[in-house]
Amino acid sequence: MNKHWTIVGLGLLVSGCYTGGDFDAAADASGGIETDGSDTQDDDSGGSSGGTDGTGEDPGELDCQMGPQVGEDSLVRLTLRQYDATVRDLVGVDASVARTSFSADVRLGESTDTRFTAGAPVSALVAKQLMLGAESIADQVDVSALTDCDGGDTCMDAFVLDFGRRGFRRPLSEAEAAVLRSIYDAEPSHDAGVRALVQAMLQSPAFLYLLLPDTQGAAPGEIVALDDWAVASRMSYFLWGTMPDAELFAAAQGGTLSSDEGIRAELARMLADPRAEAGIREFYDAVIELDFVETITKDATAYPEFSTELAGDLHESLWLGLRALHLEGDGTLASLIDAVPLYANARLSNYYGFSGANSETFEPVAELGGLLSHPGMAALLSKPGDTAIVERGLFVRGALLCSPLPPPPPGVEPELPEGGDWDTPRERLAQHREDPACAGCHNLIDPIGYAMENLDADGRTRALWPSGVPVDASGELLLGADAYAFEGLPGLESALSDQPQYEACMVNHWLTFATRRVPGELDACVVDGILAETSAQNGSLDALMEAIVLSDGFRLVQATE
């Protein structure tokens, strides 16, 4: 019979709150982890109300020569994907079945424009979900594979220290080790004791939260360096989406992650590991909704040959191109916009008219252009039966320029009426731009969307609109007081690829993804530094990764009360 390890004195999950017992020294160091069902995000890290120094006061213009300045970190729980991967690597169990009833991830920070997520806040319901999930996972553990101990004191003491270090992603204190050992000793058999340890571990704040830095003794607002264990954990979840491996733990144990050289060495090793694909894929799942490409459906009347198999191929093709940029060449921020390698198999070649791919195997074929030129993106940013100029423009503004637009003003009908005397989508959308209540936003959106009109809703190229009128894909990219006229998608790609705003946007995306904290005004110097280091290397994606893990924003935290 399962025991519900929700004992207050152990610092485990209790109904809707955490208590800072000896079981979690990190929680104690910060006064315990208390939550009423909503993990709070500080003003600065929320992105929408940033610009405080931790005291609620506006810091004014930052002087980047005055020493390290970073915003506050908040408690961020493992996402469902990170939870699954960590459970797999810690105890060898597929957790995805055990946690099918878990609450969905929530948007990171307070800004609705944030594209990244965190685990759901710990309410009473979520605490129960985590408890039941831990019990189910513990029941599936292969005890003999997890530990070769037979219950002997010496062996179990060593196992507790090793298992605890891996689960907490840092060494245990003597008190923590004693509590874990007491959980094992309370059970009637060796197997039951090990399973009880697993249950306890999977409900501990030190396991469930990405980062619990020890800032004990630091004054509120003081900048504190993460220790090697915290750096190892942050690197692992950034690059692999899971807990550190044995080599990364060894680097933390040896103290090499306190130096730039040690971090660079681990970064190179981790990016060369196949697990790096998980981190890159998760990033693009969030920023461009890569994972939704394989779910695309189209109107059977308008596109009778479009199939679920084709959607899956589009997803694989786009992923392989993005993977190649990061892991197989000298990818740059600019090449994401204008030179993503195109991969195709026979089915994609037949549908889209590509040449050079004649089997089910995906092969590189002639480049079409960048991200926006890929038929998978064109199909994703479309309606089932027609293209979507507005949606395509909004995507560029939000995902690639970090300039999302507000919703329509109250009382304004966002959808244009059907019918009317027009032959092209441009004529129809002109109605929006003639309305003063709509023109401000649609002047920023529609001309960008026009650039993709040579790609139909299924991603195939077209020269004519359905009315038979030649497609006019010219447009204008408005950035502040500057306007960049372009002809078609290649022109838009050229206009975007060398824009500082685009580069800064991608740096913000990657830094948010790496730290699971939305940069605020206090992080301006960090962002500028990463951007400068990356630009000095011609926008190299490898240089961007290195600049992030060596940055103050990645290696330092601001102490809170």
Task: Describe the fold and architecture.
The protein has three domains: about 10-40 and about 75-210, no CATH class; about 225-275; about 280-495, no CATH class. The protein has about 550 residues and is mostly helical. Strands 1-2 form a two-stranded antiparallel ribbon. The chain has a two-stranded antiparallel ribbon with strand order 3-8. It contains 26 helices and eight strands. The longest helix has 20 residues, at about 310-325.
Summarize the structure.
By secondary structure, this protein is mostly helical. It has helices at residues 25-29, 43-46, 80-91, 95-98, 124-140, 143-146, 153-168, 174-185, 190-201, 205-208, 228-239, 246-254, 260-272, 276-287, 308-327, 333-338, 346-352, 375-380, 389-400, 425-434, 436-450, 488-497, 500-515, 524-536, 541-549, 552-555; strands at residues 106-107, 117-118, 223-225, 342-344, 363-365, 474-479, 482-487, 556-558.
Number of helical stretches of at least 4 residues: 26
Number of domains: 3
> What is the gyration radius calculated from CA atoms?
26 Å
Mean pLDDT: 86
Protein topology:
Elements: H1 25-29, H2 43-46, H3 80-91, H4 95-98, E1 106-107, E2 117-118, H5 124-140, H6 143-146, H7 153-168, H8 174-185, H9 190-201, H10 205-208, E3 223-225, H11 228-239, H12 246-254, H13 260-272, H14 276-287, H15 308-327, H16 333-338, E4 342-344, H17 346-352, E5 363-365, H18 375-380, H19 389-400, H20 425-434, H21 436-450, E6 474-479, E7 482-487, H22 488-497, H23 500-515, H24 524-536, H25 541-549, H26 552-555, E8 556-558
Antiparallel strand pairs: 1-2, 3-8, 4-5, 6-7
Helix pairs in contact: 5-9, 7-8, 8-9, 11-12, 19-21, 20-21, 23-24, 23-25, 24-25
